Amino acid sequence: EKEPCCRDEDCFCVRNGIDCQADACSCWHDSHVHAKSGRDILSNDEIKNRCGNPLGTYVVDLDAIDNYRNKILYHQKEFNDDMFCLPAVASSQ
Asked: DSSP secondary structure string, 19-81?
């Protein structure tokens, strides 16, 4: 029960020679073979370990996306302060 679930030909992805995708494959969810962790959010590494596909597991790294987005916006603001609009203030008529 503690072994990864996508480690052999029983996994559709492994059998077809592709990596698993965490958003399409639910093998890493607590409801399958793993005891509940008591946490709502698993790290990308925990998801990959639970899956165990030897070809790999694609997991979207939302933190990396957010960090990259913030970096780009920060640099854009440095070069073009007019690009950012202030929130509209409701008129008190």
From this structure: -EETTT--TTSTTTTS---S-S---HHHHHHHH--TT-EE---HHHHHHHHHHHHHHHHHH-G
Contacts of 11 (CB under 8 A, 6+ apart): 5, 20, 27, 53
Digitized pLDDT (tens) for each residue of the chain, 93 residues in all:
567 888 888 888 999 999 999 888 777 776 655 555 555 678 888 888 888 899 999 998 888 899 898 888 887 777 666 555 544 445 555
Q: Which two tokens stand for residue 30?
A: 């607590």
Q: Using an 8 Å Cβ cutoff, are 58 and 30 in contact?
A: no
